[in-house]
Amino acid sequence: MATISPEIFQEVLSAYAWGEGTLSYNSYGEGHINNTYLVTVNGKTVTRYILQRINTDIFTDPKSLMENICGVTSYLRDLISKRGGDVSRETMSIVPTKTGSSYYTDSTGGAWRVYNFVENTICLQQCRNTEDFYTSARAFGQFQKNLADYDASSLHETIPNFHNTPDRLRKFKEALKADVLHRAADISDDIAFVLDHEADCSYMTDLLAAGKLPLRVTHNDTKLNNILLDADTNDALCIIDLDTVMPGLAANDYGDSIRFGANHSAEDEPDLSKVNFSLELFEAYTKGFLEVAGNALTPLEIETLPWGAKLMTLECGMRFLTDYLEGDHYFAIHRPGQNLDRARTQFKLVRDMEACWSEMNNIVSKYSK
After folding, report:
1. Collapsed DSSP state (helix, strand, coil) of residue 190
2. Coiled-coil regions in this chain (predicted)?
């Protein structure tokens, strides 16, 4: 994204009614997609806001993106209010521009939005213990349960085919055929692993197409760092980063959490002996997720949760390997071969899951009672 000039920043600030007081701002958070700032208004009281410039290189249709976010957060506010919850802390709240719009387009075409800041919260970048992973499962389970009756078909696809595993396979095959950097000859085992799993790629999408699985509102980035925790109690309060909220499968959200959290290694760990799928963490997450969301899911949705874990991991590995073949232009790398290492960690996790497939299914069955 282009550098933001002071003039543009002042233009954006002028588009919002911040209230009386002295305005200050600084960069905020550890996100890599949007430009994020904390805006502080020092008046009779101190009020804080999150200001973001949306990355329109990735989210090319900010209007549709903001329609999704406004629709979902408005629905959540009504639901939380009806059950007597704290609307200011349990969901994100969009602050409109002076003209009432959900976002502002600056004179260079940049798209900006403002959220109320949720005070007295923490955001963890990684699990400190199994309890954190269990807490995250309950949080995303609650998100799924809260939106179970929301019409998912009314949402826009902010990134088309984001979790369309057969389409990811198609793109991998195209990159393999082109082999623009002549890297394929040195990764024959990795290529064979993907092609050997070709039949698996359409398992969930075929069930969806046959009407056997329902379309759900899915978050599509169910990592621990997208949950705000109460700073005093460590209870999960609010799911954030709703840019990828789209129609999808519940098992995808569950599976992406498992892919990310049910192991103790770095995503780019070159020593695969250190990469091991953890049944203990898998069970902790499954327990938390189904305790909250179980009654909102169909029996087949629950039964196919292990498939969500396997396919989200396989899909992510394919994406890393595709990028490696194409020249590392999508996922940023900091050393040669990093995307290849990332792909191999995912494939190792898939192998581990396949080795304990019956145990995974037994765990899901245990907590679906």
Report:
1. helix
2. none
pTM reported for the whole predicted model: 0.92
- Domain match, 43 and 70 both: yes
What is 233-288 written as a DSSP string?
Answer: T--EEEE---TT-EEE-HHHHHHHHHHHHSBSS-TT-S-GGG--B-HHHHHHHHHH
* pLDDT at res. 136: 95
CB atoms within 10 A of CB 170: 13
> Containing domain of residue 169, as a range?
130-367
Q: How far apart are CA 158 and CA 369, in angstroms?
A: 35
CA distances from 221 to 73, 94, 152, 244, 311 (A): 17, 20, 17, 7, 15
**Burial bucket for residue 46 (CB in 10 Å: 0-12, 13-18, 19+):** exposed
Return d(Cα 80, Cα 74) in angstroms, integer.
10
What is the model's pLDDT at position 179?
98
Instruction: Provide the number of structural domains found in the chain.
Output: 2
Within the chain, which residues score under 50 in pLDDT? none
